[in-house]
Design goal:
asparaginase activity; hydrolase; alpha/beta; 7 helices; 261 residues; Asparaginase/glutaminase_AS2; signal; Rossmann fold; Asp/glu_Ase-like_sf; 18% strand
């Protein structure tokens, strides 16, 4: 009887421990409007992007601690129009390390100007099907109606969801795939959509609902390995039109170190 009682107690302790276990989510901050600031609560333009640090962003939304075990890291603090190859490479390598160390999901706070480019780059270079969620804001953190805190809460909820896979964008309660997302407005909080593929799902009160599966071929079995790269090869885009003499421009680019066009 005593042994049975001890077994039952142990069972309930283990069960309670498992029920309380939260996924580990790392928040990697890169700047953008979500970290923007201006000396006016009513201003939603004219702010400086990339001012607020990751610790402040996390403290502004204490409710995310109920969703996951949170750790934060400042990767950069820039206006995303200034996004560079070096930051992309650092993000990809750090995310791969985090997943290898046991982190369950990653959230990247990011400016909206180049969010879709970063999302697709990571979709090609992250060797895992664990969730990576990019999130930003259309209004600075100092605005009365700042959308950043709610977006961040939703992003953590998505990164912590057991059904979430691969690289996604979470903005304005909607979930977009890295391969399909496009920024369609410069001011509206509903600034992102997926014209060709449609939304992947939505988030309500911290609950995630999917319309379809996010995992694509590149998400886990990507042939692009950035583990040992020191820098990304330089590839330029050359616009061509009839009688443009683009051969001259292409030759000049190759002579200046371009690896591909």
């Amino acid at each position: 009887m005593k042994k049975l009682l001890l077994c039952m107690i142990a069972f309930f302790i283990v069960g309670a421990s498992m029920a309380e276990a939260k996924p580990k989510v790392a928040i990697l901050a890169t700047g953008g409007t979500i970290a923007g600031s201006i000396d006016s609560a009513v201003a939603t333009t004219g702010y400086t992007a990339g001012v607020v640090g990751v610790d402040v962003l996390i403290k502004a939304v204490p409710e995310i601690q109920n969703l996951a075990k949170i750790e934060g890291q400042q990767i950069a603090n820039i206006d995303s129009s200034n996004m560079r190859d070096e930051i992309w490479l650092k993000l990809a390598q750090e995310i791969n390390k985090l997943f290898a160390s046991g982190v369950d999901g990653v959230v990247i706070t990011h400016g909206t100007d180049t969010m879709e480019e970063t999302a697709y780059f990571l979709n090609l270079t992250i060797k895992s099907d664990k969730p990576v969620v990019l999130v930003g804001a259309m209004r600075p953190s100092t605005a009365i109606s700042a959308d950043g805190p709610k977006n961040l809460y939703n992003a953590v909820a998505l990164a912590a969801d057991k059904n979430a896979k691969g690289v996604m964008v979470a903005m304005n309660d909607k979930i977009q795939s890295a391969r399909g997302v496009v920024k369609t407005h410069t001011l509206n909080v509903d600034a992102f959509s997926s014209p060709d593929f449609g939304d992947m799902g939505y988030i309500v009160d911290g609950k995630v609902y999917f319309y379809n599966n996010v995992a694509k071929a590149h998400t886990k079995k990507t042939p692009f390995d950035v583990k040992n790269l020191k820098e990304l090869p330089k590839v330029d885009i050359l616009y061509s039109y009839s009688n443009d003499g683009s051969g001259v421009a292409a030759k000049a680019l190759f002579e200046n170190g371009t690896k591909g066009i």
